[in-house]
Amino acid sequence: MFNEKNNAMKRLTVPRFFITVLMVLAGFFALSSCNDNDGPDIPPVKMEDLKGNYKGKLVIVQGSSKREGIKEFKVKKDTISFDEFPITEIVKTVVKDPAKAEAALKTMGKVKYDLKYAAVINTSNNVIELTFAPKTMELQIPVDGANKKTVVEFVAKQKGYYVGLDQTLRYALTAEKITVDGTLVTPYTVIDYNFPFCIKN
């Protein structure tokens, strides 16, 4: 009985040993290929690489609520332009009644937004770093036959990056404050707009 168990353990242990060896060898060859001067060179990133039409993942987080989707935008010389900025969370923060919020969203339609940035090339990491200067967003939200003048203050808490290695753009934006008819919305849970992986169309 003991021999049978011992043989079974050997049968289990030997494949695991070979898997470990293969993993170590794979890591070694991967490192070797990274240091191989004959390998393909990654071209240095240029400012012109940043411009274009993008599509990417958008993750919107407000407290415990999280929503994901795909968003398109255009990057120009110093501006990221949205033809349709996602305002659902903003409107639902201002209009608490779900039915009225949905009606307001339908009436408002598409909302454009431009995000200003300044860019510099980080040659050591082969990335373009973007420092944002978000402007406020002004909305007229229709409720019960009247418009609520809504001002949204955005901040960018960190830099954005265009990565030369995989030619992707990553950045984030936060709706930090909302004012309605001159009154600050309180209590208020900030809305985070995260763009973790965007590529050109």
From TrEMBL:
Name listed for the protein in its UniProt record: DUF4840 domain-containing protein
Originating species: Chryseobacterium rhizoplanae
Signal sequence segment: 1-26
Stored PROSITE patterns: PROKAR_LIPOPROTEIN
Keyword annotations from UniProtKB, A to Z: Signal
Signal is among the record's keywords: yes
Organism superkingdom: Bacteria
Stored InterPro entries: DUF4840
